[in-house]
């Protein structure tokens, strides 16, 4: 059987999306489709490309008899329909009332700060180093190539920012800042900037080391070949950790994962923050984490205990009846989360799943559910999960079919804090 890409599959486009799902709108596709095949796709039911091929070549294709005008009309109808729905052609009060002062209003900037804060994760905080104690910490060494950078925090595929609050600007709210680059760029192929950074760290009351990636190291069409921090970044961190006067906090800016297990186990690196690419107010969001704002954690200084996992049902399936029957089989459990810290905070409870072993090409582990909960200091809360067996525990094969495998599955809470087995068996009916 020949495989078709999704954008050339009439069964998917016509029967499934427009038929079964009853889509009343348009289907678009991404860039870089070969021009020769473009009108083939139009005929199949793709209404718009996100570049300018249709508008550049559509009229000519009709004149040359390659596409019927009725096909273009059909695609246009879908597009106009989507514009009609929110009132695009009849003066929508919702859009007309929006003016210039809606752009970059104080509300929006505060929202950007909130988004940055909430996207930040605290991965380690030994000795309660964060928040920084403002009575003891007067000078802060900020060793961070991107501490004064502008667009790195924005990542890509973003709009035009209102303004950018850099980390260096925001850290000045916490004390006197000594600023060093540490590396000349993310590749950090040269260790010549490490020494001045170490010197700054040996003088300051606290040190913040920013490391990670940017679009020169990870981007569309730019894959990394390993998970390590590039170049001398690891040496930079280790040398600072050995010689800094005060506690060292590591801030990681990246989208893809980086292996920082060496820092996690390092006694002198008391705190680790993952900041992602936090956006235009990223500097403020990060600096707030050093002050009053308590970020979410995935760290297990809180106790998690599972109760009522007897709610997990033993699932039996009738041979061959995969999806229709398993839709009703759910795996229910709850996790009790206690905030053992002294400050109110939030926690993301993450649930992973290991498929049965021995299945060719099956993944090792998959995130199947997560919930963020806010918990007052000293309080506990029960977090309920209800996983649909097919949706959460299914393995998609190379043809796109979802299989619920029989055998021993494993549900994990967080980083193996708790795990419980789950056996799925099929009964053959004759
Ligand atoms: C940060 O960059 C701005 C210009 O983009 C510059 O005026 C300022 O001096 C820099 N700050 C530091 C601490 O280097
Ligand atoms: C390392 O970087 C410094 C400062 O950018 C430069 O002066 C030096 O020549 C570089 N060394 C090498 C070996 O590239
Ligand atoms: C931790 O810092 C102390 C100095 O404060 C240093 O003597 C020690 O070697 C450091 N530990 C490591 C593992 O770097
Ligand atoms: C953390 O606290 C312990 C106990 O007070 C202390 O021995 C240790 O040196 C502290 N670690 C750092 C890096 O400050």
Give a quick precis of the structure.
This protein is an alpha/beta fold. It has 13 helices and 19 strands.
Main attributes of the structure:
430 residues, alpha/beta, Rossmann fold, Immunoglobulin-like, 3 domains, 7-stranded mixed β-sheet, 5-stranded mixed β-sheet, 19 strands, binds 2-acetamido-2-deoxy-beta-D-glucopyranose, hydrolase activity, acting on glycosyl bonds, Glyco_hydro_3_C
Question: Could you walk me through the main structural features you see in this protein, from its secondary elements to its overall organization?
Answer:
The structure is a single chain. The chain is of the alpha/beta class. The protein folds into three domains: 6-84, no CATH class; 112-297, Glycoside hydrolase family 3 C-terminal domain (Rossmann fold, 3-Layer(aba) Sandwich); 330-424, Sandwich (Immunoglobulin-like). The chain is built from 13 helices and 19 strands. The chain has a seven-stranded mixed sheet, covered by helices on one side. It has a five-stranded mixed sheet with strand order 11-19-18-13-14, with no helix packed on it. The chain is globular, with a radius of gyration of 27 Å. It starts with 9 loop residues before the first helix and ends with a strand. Mean pLDDT is 83; it is low at 303-327. It binds 2-acetamido-2-deoxy-beta-D-glucopyranose (4 copies). One 2-acetamido-2-deoxy-beta-D-glucopyranose binds next to loops. This is Fibronectin type III-like domain-containing protein. It comes from Cinchona calisaya. InterPro entries: BXL, Fn3-like, GH, Glyco_hydro_3_C, Glyco_hydro_3_C_sf, Glyco_hydro_3_N_sf, Ig-like_fold. Keywords: Glycosidase, Hydrolase. It holds the Pfam family Fn3-like.
């Amino acid at each position: 059987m020949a495989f078709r890409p999704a954008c050339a599959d009439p069964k998917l486009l016509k029967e499934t999306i427009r038929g079964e799902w009853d889509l009343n709108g348009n289907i678009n596709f991404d860039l870089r489709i070969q021009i020769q095949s473009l009108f083939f796709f139009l005929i199949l039911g793709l209404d718009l490309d996100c570049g300018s091929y249709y508008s550049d070549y559509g009229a000519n294709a009709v004149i040359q008899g390659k596409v019927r005008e009725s096909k273009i009309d059909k695609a246009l109808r879908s597009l106009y329909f989507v514009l009609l729905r929110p009132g695009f052609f009849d003066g929508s009060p919702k859009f007309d009332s929006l003016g210039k002062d809606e752009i970059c209003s104080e509300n929006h900037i505060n929202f950007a700060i909130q988004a940055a804060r909430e996207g930040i994760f605290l991965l380690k905080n030994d000795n309660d180093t964060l928040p920084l104690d403002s009575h003891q910490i007067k000078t802060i060494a900020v060793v961070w190539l991107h501490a004064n950078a502008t667009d790195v925090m924005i990542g890509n595929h973003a709009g035009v920012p209102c303004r950018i609050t850099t980390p260096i600007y925001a850290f000045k709210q916490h004390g006197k800042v000594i600023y060093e680059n540490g590396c000349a760029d993310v590749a950090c192929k040269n260790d010549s900037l490490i020494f001045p950074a170490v010197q700054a760290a040996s003088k300051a009351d606290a040190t913040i080391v920013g490391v990670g990636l940017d679009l020169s190291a990870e981007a569309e069409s730019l894959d990394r070949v390993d998970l390590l921090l590039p170049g001398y970044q690891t040496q930079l961190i280790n040398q600072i950790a050995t010689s800094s006067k005060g506690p060292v906090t590591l801030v990681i800016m990246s989208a893809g994962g980086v292996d920082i297990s060496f820092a996690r186990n390092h006694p002198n690196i008391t705190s680790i923050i993952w900041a992602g690419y936090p956006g235009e107010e990223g500097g403020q969001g990060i600096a707030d984490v050093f002050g009053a704002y308590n970020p979410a954690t995935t760290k297990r200084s809180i106790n998690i205990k599972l109760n009522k996992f007897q709610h997990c049902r033993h699932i039996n399936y009738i041979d061959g009846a995969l999806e229709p029957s398993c839709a009703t089989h759910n795996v229910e459990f709850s996790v009790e989360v206690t905030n053992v810290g002294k400050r109110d905070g939030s926690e993301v409870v993450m649930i992973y799943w290991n498929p049965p072993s021995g299945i060719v090409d099956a993944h090792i582990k998959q995130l199947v559910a997560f919930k963020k909960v806010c918990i007052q200091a000293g309080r506990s809360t029960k977090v309920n999960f209800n996983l649909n067996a097919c949706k959460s525990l299914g393995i998609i094969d190379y043809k796109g079919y979802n299989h619920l495998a029989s055998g021993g599955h494993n549900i994990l809470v967080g980083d193996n804090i708790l795990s419980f087995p789950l056996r799925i068996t099929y009964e053959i009916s004759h």
